[in-house]
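thought: fold this chain, then report.
action: predict
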Amino acid sequence: MVESSAGRPAPPPVEARSLAALVVAHRACTRCADAGLIPSARPVFSGRPGQRVLLVGQAPGPVEHDVTRPFAGRAGRELVRWMLRAGFADEEDFRARVWITSTTTCFPGRRPDGAGDRRPGPAEVALCAGWLEAVLHLLAPRLVIPVGSLALSRLLGGLRLDDAVGRAFDAAGRPVEEASPTAGRVLVPLPHPSGQSRWLNDPARRRRLDAALELLSGLLDWTVR
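observation:
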């Protein structure tokens, strides 16, 4: 359980018994704005019951905030290219089969120096944690894709991108050796597709991305069996 900045476990944001109820409640969430952590609240995510894949990014950017569509900007276009390499037929197929959310679901604003978007802080992550926990519980995805270091730390705490990308893990953080496990949730981390990230400038890291996308390709059919 993620803890609040005061050290107490973040309370569940809603007692939702269905994904439909969860979506309605999440859309209306203003917690971080009420706490003065962000200028305004506009949760951005997409999903529907029956999807077996969950993708978790860092936070929406300004484009996503404006159109209320996850990964709608430049980073999203790169992510879609990765998803096509992983085996989705096209962007429509990817968005139809994957519940897309983020560690915090409202735009955190720009950095004070104007050089990119601000990384959400621990208080925002704690306030938003219940939404992700509820999706994991109610959607029960078989495959989870943490995108970027913040999502990785949220879902597989203690692992760095260099140690995680190109590998698969179970829900407890143990490596999964076989490409087609027979049971349990599998997590396949990816780096963030943002052009501001320098992680992929290293050829060895690009090979890790290639390996991760190959793993996803082998797992997509498994998710619907």
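thought: worth noting. The mean pLDDT is 90.
final: tokens above.
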